[in-house]
TrEMBL record:
Name under which the protein is recorded: Signal recognition particle receptor FtsY
Lineage: Bacteria, Pseudomonadati, Bacteroidota, Flavobacteriia, Flavobacteriales
Species: Muriicola marianensis
One Pfam family cited in the UniProt record for this chain: SRP54
Assembly mode: Part of the signal recognition particle protein translocation system, which is composed of SRP and FtsY.
UniProt cross-references to CDD domains, sorted A to Z: FtsY
Topology of the protein relative to the lipid bilayer: Peripheral membrane protein
UniProtKB keywords: Cell membrane, Cytoplasm, GTP-binding, Hydrolase, Membrane, Nucleotide-binding, Receptor
Cell location: Cell membrane; Cytoplasm
EC number: 3.6.5.4
UniProt superkingdom: Bacteria
NCBIfam families: ftsY
Length: 317
């Protein structure tokens, strides 16, 4: 059976299809113009396709990689028809994603041997970082895991208040201090509380400013060091949250944060409100960091575990 014939959860798939609708409509409108009047994939079609991918926020480097792969296939089949382009693109994009996403999570699951499992969440202000933490807390709790939140973004009072709102909504404990407190101290207290409660997962919010990368790097390094006084291998995961609707700006944010700290997974939010969903393909390819979660709507259920085959199926169906 083809990987694309797999039957996905209907509710999740409908949400994903709807969330990618703007991206899909924009992409295939451009693709239709790129092959208009052409029956065969030639140099003109490939040039047009390159422009389609770049303007769909797939990114220049990833676009060139896709075009090169298609060129190799065209060279092997001199009379490849434009009607095959959709299928070829689908296969090549799935192949690219497969190179980054090996053995990815299929659900909101945690490693058996790490309790509490500590996730440090990073990202600039406004990308949906705190909302993503709240939705993750809901999803983990729905799976039967006990969750503790840590409000280590002490730079903004609004960040602490917003995380408190989510803690109340999801009904999970939160550890916080007053605005201006040492973020590392909050992280220390959070891990201490989580250990005492035998919690399954800890979600640590961090400050989202990028105006001085050295300060950001120092702060995140200090938070890590202090957490390791409680749990030696914490954090087990550093999750970078990116706003998919910002397109190429999301690439720059990923570039800055991967320089400032060791990022192990990505969450791409707000895909439902934009035609820039191609950013998921480009970012996962260029940074070789797996996209673990995607946000395709406002509901807590619309934060989904990213599945490359579901994504490609929704994108091309």
């Amino acid at each position: 059976m083809s990987i694309f014939k797999k039957i996905f959860s209907s509710e999740k798939k409908e949400s994903l299809d709807k969330g990618l609708e703007k991206t899909k409509t924009s992409f295939f409108t451009k693709l239709g113009k790129a092959v208009a009047g052409k029956s065969r994939v030639d140099d003109d079609v490939l040039d047009n396709l390159e422009e389609v991918l770049v303007t769909s926020d797939v990114g220049v480097d990833t676009t060139l990689k896709i075009i090169e792969r298609i060129e190799q296939r065209v060279a092997a089949d001199k009379y490849m028809g434009t009607d095959e382009l959709n299928k070829i693109l689908r296969e090549e994009i799935a192949g690219l994603l497969s190179e980054t996403h090996r053995g990815e999570a299929t659900d909101f699951e945690l490693p058996e041997d790490k309790r509490p499992y500590v996730i440090m969440v990073v990202g600039v202000n406004g990308v949906g970082k705190t909302t993503t933490i709240g939705k993750l807390a809901h999803q983990f709790k729905a799976k039967g895991f006990s969750v503790v939140l840590g409000a280590a973004d002490t730079f903004r009072a609004a960040a602490i208040d917003q995380l408190q709102v989510w803690a109340d909504r999801v009904d999970v404990p939160i550890v916080k201090q007053k605005m201006g407190s040492d973020p590392a101290s909050v992280a220390f207290d959070t891990l201490s509380a989580a250990t005492a409660k035998n919690a399954d997962v800890v979600l640590i919010d961090t400050a989202g400013r990028l105006h001085n990368k050295v300060n950001l790097m120092n702060e995140l390094s200090k938070v890590k060091r202090v957490m390791q006084k409680v749990i030696p291998d914490a954090p087990h995961e550093v999750l970078l949250v990116l706003d998919g609707s910002t397109g190429q700006n999301a690439f720059e944010q990923a570039r800055q944060f991967t320089k400032a700290t060791e990022v192990s997974s990505l969450a791409v939010t707000k895909l439902d409100g934009t035609a820039k969903g191609g950013v998921v393909i480009g970012i996962s390819d260029q940074f070789q960091i797996p996209v673990k979660y995607i946000g395709v709507g406002e509901r807590v259920e619309d934060l989904q575990v990213f599945n490359k085959f579901e994504f490609v199926d929704s994108f091309f169906s």
